[in-house]
Design a protein that fits this description.
The protein has 13 helices and 41 strands. It is an alpha/beta fold. The longest helix has 20 residues.
C-alpha cells in the first residue's frame, strides 16, 4: 500500500553553526535599537524601539531563513505488512489425550482470523519431536525469527502444552508472546521416577534401585499417601509393594545370572490423571561375575607350559592360582622338597575344602601319577556336574597308563583315548597339519569367525600355522569344533550336568603364539574356550538374545542346529504379539523390527525366551505430561502477552486477534493483540524550496530598503 506524506524540511546552504553565529551577531547588533527606553510626557519610562528596528530584524530573519533553505518535502511510502509467528507444538507430549486434535483445530482458527487482519502476515512453524532433548520450542522460534526483520515482528502465538525444555534463563523477545494451552488448568499426573539404578551387578549378589512415585499437580494434602507398585523381573510374575507417594523407596534385586536382567516398575494409576504413560519405568542391569578364580595345574614341563599362565594372568578379572608339578612322586633324585617348591602342594585344601570356590580348573599336560587320589578326582567330576568348569590341554600323557581318562574324572570327559596293547603309540599322531574348523565349529561361538580359519562350505585350508602333534581319541559326547589329521577330533566342548568341559587334544597351540609358520589366533581361541567354560553369556551356543537400540529391536538366536530357524514371536509391552522370520547367518539367526513403545519386550523361538528393555524415546517429554503454563508464563508476562486455555469442549476457545498500536495493551477479555509496527519503505521523495534565491534576495533587499527609509523619515 502506498502513502504520500508532506512536511517541512531544512537543507542549510552553510553550516548550522554559522547560521547560529550570524543570528547571535544580528541580535547583538539590533539589541540597542530594540531595547531603547523612552520618557513620555507624563514622565513615565517605556520601551520604545527605534524607528526601522523591527524592519531590520525582519530583514535579518529573512536572510537567516534563506540560508536555512526551508523545503516542502513530499514522501511516498510503501507500507510493509507486519509478521506474526505461530508456533505449533508437535512433540510427543501433545499426543496425550485429545491435545493433538485440539491444537490442530486451534491452528486453523488462528490462521483464519489472522487472514482477516489488514497488513498482517502469519508464518507457521512446526515444532517437531526433539528426541532425547525434549521439546525445542525456543530453538525453533529463534530459527524462524532469524528470517524476520524485528521491526516487522508483531507478536508470537504458541500452541503448546507448556512442556518446553530449551528455554534460556533470560529470553530476549520484544514482541508480545501469547500462550494458548490445550485443556484447562489444574491437571494431575502420576509418574515413577528412577533416582538411581546401577548399570551392572555382581552375579549372586543384590543391587538396590531407588525410585520415587510422585503426584504432580495434586492439590495440597492430596500428594501424599501410598500407591501400589508392581515389580516384574524378566517378564515373570509381578511382586506388588505399597510405596509412599513423594518419598524415596528402595528395591532390592537379586542378580542370578550373567547378562541383562530387565526390571519393569509400574505404579498404579491415579484417578483423573492425564496419562499412565509415565507410570512405568524399565531398568536393565547387566549381570557380571566377580573376579574369576582359576586353578591352573601344570604337569610335565613342556615348551608351551607358559601359554595358559600368560593368558590367564593377562586378564585383570582373573585371580589365578597356579601349581606346577616339577617332579612326579615316583622319581627320587635325593633333591630336598624345600628346594623344589616354596610350599607343599595343598591337595586336600584345593580339591576338597575349597574346590567349589574356583570358577575354572585347568589341567595342562597333567598325568595321574598318584598325586591326586581317586577321591579328589571324583570330587572334580562332581564339581563339574554341579556347575563347575574344567579345561584340559593334553599331550602324549593322555594316551598312556597315567591318563586322566582312566580315572574317575574320565566320566565327564567328552573323548577317550584308545585302549589295549600298543594303543598309546597308535593314539599319538606326530605329523604336520593345519587345524580345521568343523562345520559344527563354524556355528559354535568359540570357533566362529576365527581369523584365518578354513572355509567350511568349500575346499581350502586355513591360513594359520601348522601343528605337529595331536592325540587320536574317540569322541563320545559334546561338540567337535576343530579337527586334526584325517578328521580326528582336535577340540571338543561338552556340557556335563550344570557344568562344562573343554578338551584340547594337542599341546602345540603354543606354536601360534610364537608366530611359527605364520602363527594363528592362539590368544583369542584360548580366551573364548576359557570364557565359554565359565558360561560367558556372549559365548552361549544355544541362546536367544534380544536388545533394543535407537528404537529398533534385534533378536539373535544362536543354535548349533543347521535346520532353518523357526519364526520369532515378539510381544510388545502392550501385549500385541507379532511373528518374524529370522535371517540365518551361520550359527546365528537375526530378526530386526521397530520397537518404539517403551516397556519390556519379549521374544521367543518356542524353546527359549529373551527380554529387552525399551526406555521412553524422550524421557524429558514424558517426565511431566500435564499441560502447564509455569515454564512460559514469565515470558508472556515480560512481553505483555496473554496466557489462555483452549478449554475441553469439542471446539477450542481461541481468542480473537486484534492489531494494537505500540505502547497499548496487547490483550483483554476474549482477545489477544498483535502490535502494529507501521514499518515502511520510502519509494520516492519530492522537495520544493519555500524560499528560493530568486525570492530571498529581493525580500531581504526590500526589507532593508524599507528599514533605511523608515529610519530617515
Amino acid at each position: 500500500m502506498n502513502q504520500v506524506l508532506a512536511g517541512i524540511d531544512f537543507a542549510p546552504v552553510v553550516p548550522v553553526w554559522l547560521i547560529a553565529t550570524l543570528a547571535v551577531v544580528a541580535l547583538a547588533a539590533l539589541a540597542p535599537a530594540l531595547l531603547r527606553i523612552a520618557v513620555t510626557a507624563d514622565g513615565k519610562r517605556r520601551l520604545a524601539p527605534a524607528a526601522g528596528a523591527l524592519l531590520r530584524l525582519a530583514a535579518f530573519a529573512a536572510l537567516l531563513l534563506a540560508l536555512a533553505n526551508p523545503r516542502l518535502v513530499e514522501e511516498t511510502r510503501e507500507t510493509r505488512p507486519d509478521i506474526a509467528l505461530l508456533l505449533v507444538d508437535r512433540s510427543d507430549s501433545t499426543g496425550v489425550g485429545g491435545r493433538a486434535a485440539q491444537i490442530e483445530a486451534a491452528r486453523q482458527q488462528v490462521e483464519s482470523r489472522a487472514g482477516r487482519l489488514a497488513e498482517t502476515e502469519l508464518r507457521v512453524v512446526e515444532v517437531a519431536e526433539g528426541g532425547n532433548q525434549g521439546t525445542r520450542l525456543w530453538t525453533a522460534m529463534e530459527r524462524a525469527l532469524a528470517e524476520i526483520p524485528r521491526a516487522r515482528l508483531s507478536g508470537v502465538i504458541a500452541l503448546t502444552d507448556g512442556q518446553v525444555h530449551d528455554l534460556p534463563a533470560a529470553p530476549g523477545l520484544e514482541a508480545p508472546f501469547h500462550l494458548l494451552l490445550p485443556g484447562r488448568a489444574g491437571e494431575v499426573d502420576r509418574r515413577i521416577r528412577v533416582v538411581e539404578a546401577p548399570g551392572f551387578g555382581i552375579v549372586g549378589r543384590q543391587v538396590e534401585l531407588r525410585v520415587v512415585v510422585e503426584d504432580l499437580g495434586a492439590p495440597a494434602g492430596e500428594g501424599s499417601g501410598a500407591a501400589r507398585l508392581s515389580i516384574r523381573r524378566d517378564g515373570g510374575a509381578a511382586r506388588v509393594e505399597s510405596v509412599p507417594v513423594g518419598r524415596e523407596h528402595r528395591i532390592a534385586v537379586n542378580i542370578e545370572r550373567g547378562g541383562p536382567t530387565v526390571v519393569e516398575l509400574t505404579a498404579e494409576a491415579r484417578p483423573g490423571e492425564v496419562s499412565e504413560l509415565n507410570n512405568r519405568a524399565v531398568v536393565s542391569i547387566n549381570g557380571v561375575r566377580d573376579r574369576l578364580r582359576v586353578l591352573l595345574v601344570s604337569g610335565e614341563p613342556h615348551a608351551g607350559q607358559r601359554t595358559w599362565r600368560r593368558l590367564l594372568k593377562a586378564d585383570p578379572n582373573v585371580d589365578l592360582v597356579h601349581f606346577t608339578i616339577l617332579r612326579p612322586p615316583e622319581k627320587d633324585d635325593l633333591t630336598p622338597l624345600h628346594e623344589l617348591a616354596l610350599i607343599a602342594f595343598p591337595v586336600r585344601e584345593l580339591f576338597q575344602v575349597k574346590l567349589r570356590e574356583f570358577d575354572l580348573i585347568v589341567f595342562d599336560r597333567f598325568a595321574n601319577r598318584g598325586l591326586l587320589p581317586p577321591v579328589y578326582l571324583r570330587n572334580i567330576a562332581d564339581y563339574v556336574r554341579g556347575g563347575g568348569a574344567l579345561l584340559l590341554s593334553v599331550g602324549p600323557e593322555f594316551a598312556g597308563p597315567t591318563s586322566l581318562a582312566a580315572t574317575p574324572l574320565g566320566q565327564v570327559l567328552p573323548a577317550r583315548p584308545p585302549t589295549g596293547p600298543g594303543a598309546a603309540q597308535a593314539a599319538l599322531l606326530e605329523q604336520a597339519f593345519r587345524p580345521r574348523v568343523t562345520a559344527l565349529g563354524a556355528r559354535h561361538p568359540v570357533t566362529e569367525d576365527l581369523p584365518g580359519a578354513n572355509p567350511v562350505d568349500g575346499p581350502g585350508e586355513a591360513s594359520w600355522g601348522r601343528w605337529y602333534r595331536a592325540l587320536r581319541a574317540d569322541a563320545r559326547a559334546g561338540s567337535t569344533v576343530m579337527e586334526g589329521p584325517d578328521g580326528a577330533p582336535l577340540m571338543l566342548l561338552d556340557r556335563v550336568g550344570e557344568g562344562r568341559v573343554a578338551l584340547v587334544l594337542s599341546d602345540h597351540i603354543w606354536l601360534w603364539s610364537r608366530g611359527h609358520d605364520g602363527g594363528g589366533p592362539q590368544a583369542e581361541l584360548l580366551r573364548r574356550i576359557a570364557h565359554w567354560t565359565m558360561k560367558e553369556p556372549e559365548l552361549e551356543e544355544e541362546d536367544l538374545i534380544a536388545r533394543i537400540e535407537h528404537g529398533r529391536m534385534t533378536v539373535v538366536r544362536r543354535s548349533l542346529e543347521a535346520s532353518p530357524p523357526p519364526e520369532i514371536t515378539v510381544t510388545a509391552p502392550d501385549g500385541m504379539a507379532s511373528r518374524h522370520q529370522a535371517e540365518a547367518r551361520g550359527g546365528r539367526a537375526v530378526a530386526e523390527l521397530p520397537a518404539t513403545q517403551p516397556g519390556v519386550w519379549q521374544a521367543t523361538d518356542g524353546r527359549r525366551t529373551a527380554y529387552a528393555a525399551a526406555e521412553a524415546g524422550n524421557p524429558l517429554e514424558i517426565a511431566d505430561l500435564r499441560a502447564d503454563a509455569a515454564a512460559l508464563r514469565p515470558l508472556a508476562g515480560a512481553t505483555g502477552g496473554a496466557v489462555r486455555w483452549l478449554g475441553t469442549g469439542e471446539a477450542p476457545e481461541v481468542p480473537e486477534l486484534r492489531r494494537v498500536a505500540a505502547g497499548r495493551d496487547t490483550y483483554g477479555p476474549g482477545w489477544i493483540g498483535l502490535r502494529r509496527n507501521e514499518d515502511h519503505t520510502v519509494t520516492g521523495i519530492t522537495a520544493l524550496p519555500l524560499l528560493p534565491p530568486w525570492l530571498a534576495l529581493p525580500l531581504v533587499l526590500g526589507l532593508a530598503l524599507l528599514a533605511w527609509r523608515r529610519e530617515g523619515a
